[in-house]
Structures are given as C-alpha cells and as structure tokens.
Design a protein that fits this description.
The strands form three sheets. The chain has a seven-stranded mixed beta sheet with strand order 2-8-7-6-5-3-4, with helices on both faces. It has a four-stranded antiparallel beta sheet with strand order 9-10-13-12. The chain is built from eleven helices and 13 strands. About 45% of the residues are buried. The mean pLDDT is about 95. It has two domains: about 110 residues, Aspartate Aminotransferase, domain 1; about 220 residues, Type I PLP-dependent aspartate aminotransferase-like (Major domain) (Aspartate Aminotransferase, domain 2, 3-Layer(aba) Sandwich). A hairpin with a 6-residue loop joins strand 9 and strand 10.
C-alpha cells in the first residue's frame, strides 16, 4: 500500500474472491456460478440494449423493478435493484449499522460481512455456529444489533426454516434483520412473504446463481415501503446509475423466461442429490445443503489435499483455511457431465489413498 492510504483503511482485510485462473482450462466448481448460460431472452434483450450504451441507464431501473416486484408478489416501492447483491448488503451495513448498532452474524458465513463492517467502521460480533455448523436462532434473540443471516448459509449450505427466521425477526421490532437469500432458489422457503408483516426485515437476492448472470452483476433487496427508501438514499449518494443498461435488459429477459429458470433449478437440484449420493458411497460426510453447492469432507484426505489434488486434475473447488472448516471443501454443483468427471476423479484419488 502507498504512504497516502488513510489509517482508516490500512488494516482493512479485503474479501478474497474464488480463483479465476487463466493459465489453463478448468472445470470451475469453486465460485457457485451456474453451469448454464443466460436464457436466450436475456441474451437477446441485452444485445439489443447494447446499441444504446451511449445513454445513461434509468436510475430507477423502473421496468425491471416492476417485473421483479411482480415476480416476488410485492409492490414496486418494496424493491431496490442493485449491482449484485453485494451492493445491497453494503447499503444495509451503511444504513443500519453504526458505533451504537453493531452487526451480528455467524462466525462461519459469507466472508464479505466482516469486510463490509470494517469498511463502514462499525463494530461486529461473530456468533459461533453449533458443533453441527447450524445457526441457532436463540443466539440472536435478546441481543442488540443488526442481524445478517445467509439462508441457506455459505459455505455450509444449511438452511433455517422460515418459522425460525420469523422468530428472529419478531423478537425485536426495533432492529433490522437482513436475510441474504443468494441460494434460496435451490430448495429453501423465502422470507419475502414476511415483509408485509414486519417492517424491520430486509431480504436480499441475486441473479448470479439460479438465473445464470454472475457476470452481469445484478441483485435486489426487498423490504417494507419505509425501509427501502433508506437504501435508495444511500444509492443516490454513491452511484445512482448502479445497474447498467445491458444488465437491466438481461434481468428482464431472465425474469420473463420463467420456464428456463425453473428447469435449470430442477437440474441443479437433481445433480446435487446425485453427486451427494455418489460421494456418500465413497465415504464422504457432508452438510444437509439446500444451495447449489456441496460442503464435504473425508477422513481419508484433508480438505487442503483434496483441493490441491483436484486442481492438479483440472477441477477447481473451494477450500477455506478457517480452523473449524479446514477439513471441508465446497463443491459447486455443475452440469451432470461435470459432476460425473468430478466423481470419477475423486474415485481415482480414493483408490490412491487406500
């Protein structure tokens, strides 16, 4: 870092994205992207909008916001569209946390939460998961602070039932609870249905996973008509044109092509269950995931060794150095062909480690 960086950021530890290597072609099962391309409708609308890139985009993202609201069964004034769900999460840290309102989130969860807290200069408490890597709602009841919970959680993939999410939200109407639903479309009940009942709930989501748009950067937040303007205030104070023309158009196409979306989600769930069965037969243990990834470990090979061995074989998975989960690797669920190759490679490794 340079001598000019202010002290506020000198100790900041940035988020570490998953590997995006260029030196060879890998089967990428490390960043929870979809194995399927965006829908043809999304591609067509984005290409058409490319001709108008000389004009600023609509800062209100009006058409997409309206269609998103319709998709979720809420009003347009209860939705904000953002540059990936990371942006709306950052807005939430800025809007609802300060030195008097700390952030509360699990010790094992999406790594960006602690970065956002540090970036905003707000205190935070990491609440340990249970020995079984689950979130206990009781740990968030009776504590002051803004709550951030990924549901399903990452990297474990474990989800809380909606009743337990509601218990956290209802326990303290005087604080905001943020439910990060990046992986909700793969088998978890969304908390969006609760926003009419609770004005202290913010639900966030993304088009990166189930709608095949990780490269487009599109996310959203859903909350009460009183809560969303707080985030809009932050948006218009930082980057009012946060969703570009092509991304907004692609988002429209992705929402319009509901059949393609549902079909892809179904395939990923089927591939997840097939892969889980195959790895279980090889002696792997795994969490009960409801996301588009598996979180697995074996008593025959360490997580780091498995990650490195698969990397040498041309398959990227994600390994975390955190002591509590260092035995695990996170494996994105790809196409059936990709998962068959993965299983075959692991079978070969299993034979070598006998």
């Amino acid at each position: 870092m340079s001598k000019f960086l202010i002290d506020k950021y000198s100790a900041l530890k940035p988020y570490t994205p998953g590997e995006q290597p260029r030196e060879r072609k890998y089967i990428k099962l490390n960043t929870n992207e979809s194995p399927f391309p965006p829908s043809r409708c999304a591609q067509r609308l984005a290409a058409r909008e490319a001709r108008r890139l000389y004009l600023y985009p609509d800062p209100n993202v009006t058409a997409l916001t309206s269609l998103m609201a319709e998709e979720l069964g809420v009003s347009a004034d209860e939705v904000i569209m953002t540059n990936g769900s990371d942006e709306v999460l950052n807005f939430a840290f800025m809007a609802f946390c300060d030195e008097n309102r700390e952030a509360l989130f699990p010790d094992i969860t999406y790594g960006f939460y602690r970065v956002f807290a540090a970036l905003s200069g707000v205190p935070y408490t990491e609440i340990p998961l249970g020995d079984d890597l689950t979130v206990s709602p009781d740990d968030y009841i009776g504590r002051r602070g803004t709550v951030f919970i990924a549901n399903p959680n990452a990297p474990t993939g474990i989800a809380l039932p909606l009743s337990e999410i509601e218990r956290i939200v209802a326990s303290d109407p005087g604080r905001v609870v943020v439910v990060d639903e990046a992986y909700v479309d793969f088998g978890t009940e969304s908390a969006v249905s609760l926003i009419k009942k609770y004005d202290n709930l913010l639900v966030t989501g993304t088009f990166s996973k189930s709608r095949s748009m990780a490269g487009a950067r599109l996310g959203y937040g859903v909350g009460s008509a009183e809560l969303i303007p707080d985030l809009v205030r932050i948006k218009y104070s930082t980057n009012p044109y946060n969703v570009n023309r092509m991304t907004a158009a692609a988002g429209l196409g992705a929402l319009l092509d509901r059949k393609y979306f549902k079909c892809n989600c179904k395939k990923i769930i089927e591939n997840r269950e097939w892969t889980a069965s195959e790895l279980s037969a090889l002696g792997f243990e795994m969490t009960p995931t409801r996301a588009n990834f598996l979180f697995v470990k074996s008593d025959k090979i360490s997580g780091k060794e498995l990650y490195l061995a698969l990397r040498r074989e041309g398959i990227l998975v994600r390994h975390f150095d955190s002591p509590r989960i260092s035995d695990y690797v996170r494996i994105t669920v790809g196409s059936k062909k990709q998962m068959q190759i993965l299983v075959d490679k692991i079978k070969n490794l299993s034979e070598m480690t006998k």
